[in-house]
Write a structure and sequence with these properties.
Helix content: over 70%
Order of helices and strands: HHHHHHH
Low-confidence stretches: 99-104
Number of domains: 1
Shape: globular
Radius of gyration: 17 Å
Number of strands: 0
Distance between the termini: 21 Å
Structural class: mainly alpha
Largest sheet: none
Strand content: under 5%
């Protein structure tokens, strides 16, 4: 896998976590009404404060477990199953007529950190789908691959949260809801494709 191919894979697979409706997304909408892009970027900063240490710890754990013969197969199977599940969750969520809202009381950086660290979806994503991406990065670039993978992932959080903040400040209804739903269904199909590709990497 080339660097470009790895970057594209990480970006597409990361959509299942970055753009998924949830407390962080709803809080971003709430803060964005007044703060615009600035509040979105601050929430992304809070998100990064929790996400980066978790990714590094997972990467180090994967390195210590990487000598086990079945580790790659297990991570591929778990990653594939999780992609299928998250794709189903995304399709179900975008078919709903409305998304729940949440009005945070603290600043966007703190809210970004708290809503990230206390989100079971976030933890589950990194321990399944994310672990597969981290292990791929390590295989390609050794320990440096942890940070290469994270770089290909984290920019999407800043772009997405900043964009949500801007559009929320302009009074858009959930980022043009019709096109948001169409886009998310399309990305769900991509997640299913990558789930299948994960399974194809298993040596039976």
């Amino acid at each position: 896998m080339t660097l470009v191919q790895f970057a594209i894979t990480v970006a597409i697979v990361s959509i299942s976590g970055v753009m998924s409706p949830g407390p962080l997304f709803a809080a971003n909408l709430s803060y964005g009404i007044k703060g615009g892009m600035k509040s979105g970027l601050k929430m992304a900063m809070g998100h990064t404060m929790v996400e980066l240490p978790l990714v590094v710890l997972l990467g180090l754990g994967i390195v210590s477990l990487g000598t086990l013969p079945q580790f790659r197969e297990i991570s591929s199977i778990m990653g594939a199953i999780s992609l299928f599940v998250f794709a189903g969750i995304q399709i179900k969520s975008v078919l709903r007529k409305t998304f729940s809202t949440f009005i945070p009381r603290r600043g966007p950086i703190l809210a970004g950190a708290l809503l990230t660290g206390l989100n079971p979806f976030f933890i589950a994503w990194w321990f399944t789908i994310g672990s597969k991406l981290i292990s791929d990065g390590i295989i390609l670039y050794s320990l440096l691959g942890i940070f290469v993978m994270f770089a290909f992932h984290i920019w999407m959080d800043y772009l997405w949260m900043g964009t949500v903040g801007v559009l929320s400040s302009k009074g858009r209804n959930i980022i043009s809801e019709k096109y948001y739903r169409i886009f998310m269904v399309g990305t769900s199909a991509a997640l299913i494709y990558f789930g299948i590709s994960f399974l194809e990497q298993i040596k039976f």
